[in-house]
Amino acid sequence: MEQNRRQFIYNTLAGLTTITVGPQLLANTPLLFKRSYESKPWLELSKSAYLHNAAQISKMAGGKPVIAVLKNNAYGLGDVQVAKILNNSTSIASIAVVTDESAIAIGRAGVKKSILLMGDFDFDNGPSLVNGHVILSIFSKDSLKKIQLLSQETKKLVKVALYVDTGLGRMGIPYEQTHTIAQEISKSGGLKITHTFSTLTSPKDFAIRQIHRFETLIKNLNENGISTGLAHLAPSYSLLDLSNSHQDAVRPGILLHGSFPNAKMEKAKEFPLEVSYRLKAPVIRLEKLKAGDTIGFSRFYKVEREEWIATLPIGWADGYDSRAENGAKVLLGNELYKVVNVNSSHTNISLGSETKIKIGDVATLIGPENPEITPAGFAKLIDGNNYLQIQYKESLPKRIYETF
Predict the structure, then answer these.
(1) Which one is predicted more confidently, 136 or 23?
(2) Which DSSP symbol is given to 257?
(3) What is the pTM for the complete model shown?
(4) For residue 265, which of 61, 81, 204, 220 sits 20 to 30 Å off, Cα-Cα?
């Protein structure tokens, strides 16, 4: 009987749009309750924005083909989802990733663009990579031996890329050793060089030296009868800053998502990009705190006068930058509200002394709707940089739209 009574009360309340509650019970809770609402954060991607950005990047590079770098799960935005969108771009020549799992997943998703694996791979995944026509990078003598063995075991021709270290120092064949390795590859019947690439550092003077090293190497290899395939050097920053870095193709990452590496770059005015995504989260808690109350483990935010505080189910563990509590804003109910606390799982925003916000209302934390919540606007408010979407948790759901 008790269980039936409880179920009756629950069903009655759940069916109401308005619940009148005595002040002695829930004095600080807004009266409007939505029966069904989102309870977790998600990402939204715009097809039209990605295709626009790809075309703009090609224009920046004088019409050169674009190799789309979707490393780190496309900065957390979904490598498979973004690759499927860019598969429809005539400006995109290839997709580049750094893990074998990403390369295999993108191929299995039906993407027809060639896929360049810029990192290492588990040998057990080798046959899948070869069968998927993934271009494998040779970045050391050991990686060469590994790919030669793979070609022998699969009895297939393997397309490879020469990954040259021209001075970045973290990955690639030291440029002084590249000629010897390239000669060995050319003598191997099972391998074919289709790409030669390196990565430039940010300081312009040293990047210019790297370009000279790279171009000298390409020239020497070609003069010795070794085909080097498509040559490319330029990540987003160099693409914008050094026109002679463009080579045969350019290799942007962050530009594809609508952000410039540096918001003050002149190209931002000449080639405007579109923010390609939104980060959204619902309000799951509303509470009116009194003067003197604090929020968070460290009591980061102290309430000076009565104000409504909303909680969103997203935090730094999901990839939302914890520095947001230092001045960022979110869009909620067509108004901007200040972020006052970010922990691993939740973000709190201040709504002021009076509010019409309800449980279930959806906040946009990053998006194109207002300059202050774009990636560049967010970076400016927290005194950060534009590489802020790099940590988004892979499990965040992605919703694809034709346009925003």
Answers:
(1) 136
(2) G
(3) 0.87
(4) 81
Residues 202-233 have pLDDT tens digits of: 888 999 999 999 999 999 999 999 999 999 99
Q: Is the pLDDT of residue 28 over 70?
A: no
pLDDT of residue 9: 41
What DSSP string describes 128-152? HHHHTTPEEEE-SHHHHHHHHHHHH
Would you state the structure tokens that stand for residue 391, as one six-digit string? Answer: 């940590």
* pLDDT (average), residues 109-127: 97
Report CA-CA distances (Å) from 57 to 152, 199, 330, 377: 39, 18, 29, 21
Q: Give the CA diameter of the chain.
A: 91
**CA 97 to each of CA 102, 124, 187, 191, 282: distance values in angstroms, whole numbers, following the listed order:** 7, 18, 28, 20, 32
Q: Are 73 and 79 in contact (CB under 8 A)?
A: yes
What residues contact residue 165 under an 8 Å CB cut-off, 6+ apart?
A: 139, 171, 172, 173, 174, 175, 198
**What is the DSSP secondary-structure string of 265-331?**
-THHHHS-----EEEEEE--EEEEEPTT-EETTTT-EE-SS-EEEEEES--GGGT--GGGGGT-EEE
Handedness of CA 45, 49, 54, 60 (dihedral sign): negative
Q: Does domain 12-43+277-401 have CATH number 3.40.190.10?
A: no
Q: Which two tokens stand for residue 181?
A: 């390795």
CA distance 221 to 215: 10
Q: Select from 3.20.20.10, 3.90.190.20, 3.40.1080.10, 1.50.10.10 the CATH code of 46-270.
A: 3.20.20.10
Cα separation, 286 vs 309, whole angstroms: 6
- What count of other Cβ atoms lies within 10 Å of the Cβ of residue 183? 14
**Residue 311 dihedral angles phi and psi, to the nearest 5°:** -110, 130
